[in-house]
């Protein structure tokens, strides 16, 4: 069971995501139905630690064995999505894989394991042209700042 709780017009979500960098490119993904991007990963399951969750998600989405490295950021994020207030805890880790994914010439690509998702390798300096959420993660990637940190982000009033 995913650690996500729905209460009327509010949702709590706990997820883990990975920073995969290859020759100055970072891997991002989005749902085919959305325009905004995020880093690969997904919801943590009840009783599962964040690193194990990220390994599982990368295997499910990309069919790759991941080595989840050091903790980068914890982001406590409050925002509105689909007319619901979201309280999300995101834990971000540096990730290495033993098999490298091809860069696909900078084009979007899909994989059989995650047909609902679109992936793309983006040069770090070009992230400014993408709506990558949360923005604090995008800014950290663009600045090259990969030190462990905690961030509180809110676009809601009175949080």
Automatic annotation (TrEMBL):
Keywords: Hydrolase. PROSITE patterns: NUDIX. Pfam families: NUDIX. It comes from the Bacteria. Its cofactor is Mg(2+). Gene3D superfamilies: Nucleoside Triphosphate Pyrophosphohydrolase (3.90.79.10). InterPro entries: NUDIX_hydrolase-like_dom_sf, NUDIX_hydrolase_dom. Residues 11-147 form the Nudix hydrolase domain. CDD domains: NUDIX_Hydrolase (cd04688). PANTHER family: GDP-MANNOSE MANNOSYL HYDROLASE (PTHR43046), MUTT_NUDIX FAMILY PROTEIN (PTHR43046:SF14). This is 8-oxo-dGTP pyrophosphatase MutT (NUDIX family). It comes from Fictibacillus barbaricus.
């Amino acid at each position: 069971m995913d650690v996500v709780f729905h209460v009327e017009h509010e949702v709590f979500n706990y997820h883990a995501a990975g920073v995969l960098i290859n020759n100055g490119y970072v891997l991002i993904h989005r749902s085919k139905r959305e325009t905004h991007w995020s880093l690969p990963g997904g919801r943590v399951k009840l009783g599962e630690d964040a690193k194990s969750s990220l390994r599982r998600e990368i295997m499910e989405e990309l069919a790759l064995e991941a080595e989840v490295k050091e903790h980068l950021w914890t982001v406590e994020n409050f925002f509105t999505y689909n007319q619901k207030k979201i309280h999300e805890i995101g834990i971000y880790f540096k990730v290495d894989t033993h098999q490298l994914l091809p860069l696909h010439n900078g084009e979007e690509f899909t994989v059989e394991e995650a047909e609902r998702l679109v992936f793309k390798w983006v040069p770090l300096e070009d992230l400014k042209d993408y709506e990558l959420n949360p923005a604090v993660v995008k800014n950290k990637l663009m600045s090259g700042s990969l030190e462990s940190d905690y961030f509180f982000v809110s676009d809601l009033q009175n949080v």
